[in-house]
């Protein structure tokens, strides 16, 4: 039988059909094995662990066959309980595989302290952003006679005058005493009187 007769024969078509069937079965078995080994279709939804203690978060993750790693603590966040989860990665609602590690950051036990910046003789517009950058808040604003309008004259916390470099708790409200841009003429008169009297005293 010639090659042309063979490829057009019934035997060739039956063998070709059998080869396609074998390839199809092998492909199906491979995809089934791949699905089984990668656990495809059995993804786990990451729960929301925020505001939970590490112990509670661990219990919740154990139920879902997930693991966790505590990365570190973050500066105290007032809206979250102490030692509770503040952030997590992956985020809540993400789809992950079994035994996936969830990375946690925990709220610290309390406020951290910062050193007061030197705001004296700076303008109000300069002082407020500086306070906020350090995690401090603007408190009560009062004025006193001083030629420089809105110039910071004093920094206070709970009525106590602060100096640059002193430590205060983050999120503290810092009161500022500003100049009102006015000159006290009485003081100017007293100063003039003093200067006038000095030569006379010196003459005696």
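^ structure tokens above, recovered residues below v
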């Amino acid at each position: 039988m010639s090659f042309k007769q063979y490829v057009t024969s019934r035997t060739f078509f039956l063998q070709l059909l059998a080869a396609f069937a074998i390839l199809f079965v092998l492909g199906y078995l491979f995809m089934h094995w791949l699905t089984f080994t990668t656990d495809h279709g059995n993804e786990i939804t990451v729960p929301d662990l925020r505001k939970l203690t590490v112990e509670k978060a661990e219990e919740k993750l154990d139920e879902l066959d997930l693991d966790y790693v505590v990365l570190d603590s973050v500066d105290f966040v007032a809206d979250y309980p102490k030692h509770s989860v503040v952030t997590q990665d992956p985020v809540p609602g993400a789809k992950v595989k079994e035994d996936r590690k969830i990375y946690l950051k925990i709220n610290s036990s309390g406020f951290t302290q910062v050193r007061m910046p030197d705001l004296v003789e700076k303008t109000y517009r300069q002082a407020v952003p500086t306070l906020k950058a350090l995690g401090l808040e603007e408190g009560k604003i009062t004025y006193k006679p001083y030629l420089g309008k809105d110039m910071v004259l004093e920094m206070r916390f709970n009525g106590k005058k602060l100096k640059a470099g002193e430590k205060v708790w983050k999120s503290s409200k810092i009161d500022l005493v500003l100049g009102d841009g006015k000159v006290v003429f009485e003081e100017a008169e007293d100063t003039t009187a003093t200067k006038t009297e000095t030569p006379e005293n010196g003459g005696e």
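The CA atoms of residues 72 and 105 lie 5 Å apart.
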